[in-house]
Write a structure and sequence with these properties.
Oligomer: single chain
Shape: elongated
CATH class of the largest domain: Mainly Alpha
CATH topology of the largest domain: Cytochrome Bc1 Complex, Chain D, domain 2
Radius of gyration: 23 Å
Number of strands: 0
Number of helices: 6
CATH superfamily of the largest domain: Cytochrome c-like domain
Strand content: under 5%
Distance between the termini: 60 Å
Largest sheet: none
Number of domains: 2
Structural class: mainly alpha
Length: 130
């Protein structure tokens, strides 16, 4: 085998190694995005129940039956909730706890944990487009 052939073989091996590394990184990133952490998954599951029992009458499917433009879609949350773009979960928590206009406050009805769980659920659903 000539030195040129050896060189080409080494280049091919390096390219294949880079492809394998990129595929592994892509697989890891996909898994991280596809499967939330168990804690967040539990909050989302509980959050769905809390949402169903407390929010869905007005916000079914991420909508808003009272003020049609103020939905739970990501774009609307970003537009209407203070500081949503800086800390989305905290902005949702603030809205749930304190209410605003036609929306009642839930700080005396839901525990802090329940508020966190429903906020995580709303955030996740808004990121997915409901």
């Amino acid at each position: 085998m000539t030195s040129k052939q050896k060189y080409l073989l080494d280049v091919c091996r390096e390219e294949n190694l880079l492809r394998i590394i990129l595929l592994i990184l892509l697989a890891i990133a996909t898994l991280k995005l596809t499967f939330p952490s168990p804690v967040l998954a539990a909050e989302i599951s509980s959050g769905a129940k809390i949402f169903q029992n407390n929010c869905s009458a007005c916000h079914i499917g991420g909508g808003n039956i009272l003020v049609s433009q103020k939905t739970l879609q990501k774009e609307a949350l970003s537009k209407y909730l203070t500081n949503y773009n800086d800390d989305a979960i905290q902005a949702i928590i603030h809205q749930v706890e304190n209410g605003k206009n036609a929306m009642p406050a839930f700080k005396n009805k839901l525990s802090e944990q329940e508020v966190l769980e429903v906020a995580a659920y709303v955030f996740q659903k808004s990121e997915q487009g409901w």
